[in-house]
Amino acid sequence: MAEERKKILEMLAAGKISVDEAERLLSALGGADAEVGAPQAATAGRGPKFLRVEVRDGDDNVDVRVPLALIRAGMKFQSLIPEHAKVKIGEKLDEKGIQLDLGKLKSGDIEDLVAALSDLSVNVGGDGGEKVKVYCE
Amino acid sequence: MLIPPSMIYIRLRRRHGRGLWLLLPVFLAWPLLAAVEVLAVPVVAATAPAALPWGCSRTVLGFVPRMMELFASLRGLRVATSNGEAEIRIVIL
User: Fold this and answer.
1) A61: left (phi over 0), alpha (psi -120 to 50) or beta
2) For the segment A25-37, what is each residue's pLDDT rounded down to a tens digit?
3) Residue A54 touches partner B, C-beta closer than 8 Å
4) Quick check: A61 and B82 CB within 8 A?
5) How far apart, in Å, do the first and last CA atoms of chain A sit?
6) Residue A46 confidence class, pLDDT cut points 50, 70, 90
7) Mutation to test the B interface, candidates A4, A23, A81, most B Cβ within 10 Å
8) Which of A134, B58, B70, B89 could form a disulfide with A73 if both were Cys (CB 3.0 to 4.6 A apart)?
9) Are A29 and A8 a contacting pair, CB within 8 Å?
10) Which residue pairs, CB below 8 angstroms and at least 24 apart, start in A17-20?
């Protein structure tokens, strides 16, 4: 698989394929990797991989695609926060009216959150023709 | 397994005028990152016990692996923004 990835990147560097084509090929290769790997990895590979946020307002457009793995990795950082800092963060969040105890957040909760995000689909339209779409793909 | 980003593609384009695109070979930095990870091991091993009284040893031990995981998770990130005049697109491959 590493050889195939290298070949795709070489084709991209040589200008034989576009970035979009390279992205599609690498994603397809990623899916194939998951199928070859452990059964758990294959199961995980079937779900959505990205969180998409699209904002369209006339000529102004923003399109962001965030890998769910990045959200997962970011969430895992909370386990590195020292206990005393977690207490302080909890107090500050409480002052703002947010009831969140970081100490009680487990890795299973992170998976639940990511799974919940996978089902998320938000579609908002404004009077001025602006549109906001949030979904997973 | 998470594969770290190989390339970063940046494209800046104006409606009237020339565009600019860059393809940064991030994979060239992989050996450097691996070296940093290896070099961090003795530093972390020495610092973690010292951080124990402050309750930060877990933070010290987990920081480098978590940062590497975060870096590897960047693959697939895409930000594209445009208005009537210009377009900016950043893709991490």
Assistant:
1) beta
2) 777 776 554 444 4
3) no
4) yes
5) 24
6) low
7) A23
8) B70
9) yes
10) A19/B9, A19/B11, A19/B91, A19/B93
Among the partner residues B77, B81, B93, nearest to A26 by beta-carbon distance: B93
- A41 pLDDT exceeds 60? no
Task: List the structure tokens of B24.
Answer: 């940064």
Q: Over the stretch B5-40, which tens digit does the pLDDT of each residue have?
A: 999 999 999 888 788 999 999 999 999 999 999 999
What's the ipTM?
A: 0.84
How far is residue B35 from each of residues B7, B29, B32, measured CA to CA in Å? 19, 10, 5
B86, B19 contact by CB (below 8 A): no
Q: Which residues of A36-54 are buried (b: 16+ CB within 10 A; e: fewer)?
A: eeeeeeeeeeeebbbbbeb
Cβ proximity of B59 and B51 under 8 Å? yes
Question: What does the block give as tokens for A31?
Answer: 């899916």
- Residue spans of the domains in chain B: they are 7-92
Whole-model pTM: value is 0.72
C-alpha distances out from residue A6 to A108, B1, B37, Å: 35, 17, 24
